[in-house]
Design a protein that fits this description.
5-stranded parallel beta sheet; 1 helix; binds copper (II) ion; Immunoglobulin-like; mainly beta
Length: 272
């Protein structure tokens, strides 16, 4: 390099370059449109206040360029650091020397010299991609949904009372002087639930053509069972009085075929 510099002195032609071929520091302004060369041995510190200068830094020392006007092109080919401060902006810096190529502001540097002045590539973190986006593969499926296989069935309840006659409803007509007569009170029997004693008789007193008497459980009450069988009551569809003896204990249902659905039903309970 020393030799190169000396050869520069030897070649007077180098004087054609502005500010070139010097031993020692160089500090001179540069005018727009000029090609200003720093090819000496010392540092070269130059500026281009009007902008749009062209610099060639190929000396041994540092080359410091200030381009306040902007738009300068700086070729960094020397051995020292090549420092460009392009406050005016729009400068380019070609980095081909062996020193550091430093762009302090307003310029772009190409590859080549170590580009100490350029901020390291901004680390752009990988855009956050939420590859673990929550996918609820374990959505709750209630496989143990409660199925009440033990739904309460009151197996001890037994069927509903025969023709609705609960124990409390039975009218006791077992005494010797009791009438034991059943009449039609509107569309129901009275008493509809009557208790007698085995061997006693019951008498229905009504117009059977209007209230046909039928033994057994009415069609609306089949869930209540059948009552005691056989039932000594015989169907009546004519006449007005019917008497039948009950020799055996039991509950003997009967109903009016016309008005059974409306509640014209009854039971003769025969106690032992
Ligand atoms: Cu009837």
């Amino acid at each position: 390099m020393i030799r190169a510099s000396l050869s520069c002195f030897a070649l007077l032609g180098c004087a054609a370059a502005f500010g070139g071929c010097r031993i020692g520091n160089t500090s001179a302004g540069c005018t727009a449109g000029d090609v200003c060369v720093c090819d000496g041995i010392g540092n070269c510190d130059r500026d281009c206040p009007g902008g749009n200068c062209q610099f060639e830094c190929r000396g041994i020392g540092n080359c410091t360029i200030s381009c306040a006007g902007g738009g300068c092109d700086v070729a960094c080919m020397g051995t020292g650091n090549c420092i460009l401060d392009c406050s005016g902006g729009g400068c380019t810096q070609t980095c081909e020397g062996s020193g550091n190529c430093i762009c302090n502001s307003g310029c772009s540097s190409d590859a080549g010299m170590p580009d100490a002045g350029t901020a390291p590539d901004a680390v752009v973190p990988d855009a956050f991609v939420d590859i673990d986006a929550f996918v609820d593969t374990d959505a709750f499926v209630d496989t143990d949904a409660f199925v009440d296989t033990d739904a309460f069935v009151d197996t001890d309840a037994g069927p509903p009372p025969l023709h609705g006659c609960t124990d409390a409803m039975f009218v006791d007509q077992t005494a010797a002087g009791d009438a034991r007569t059943i009449t039609a009170a509107g569309f129901s029997y009275s008493p509809n639930c009557m208790t007698i004693t085995a061997g006693q008789s019951a008498t229905w007193s009504m117009t059977f053509a209007g209230h046909p008497l039928v033994p057994g459980v009415g069609p609306s009450h089949t869930a209540e069972g059948t009552g005691t069988l056989p039932n000594p009551i015989v169907a009546q569809s004519s006449g007005t009085t019917y008497t039948v003896a009950f020799p055996s204990p039991g509950d003997y249902p009967y109903y009016c075929s016309f008005h059974e659905a409306g509640g014209m039903v009854g039971v003769v309970r025969v106690l032992p």
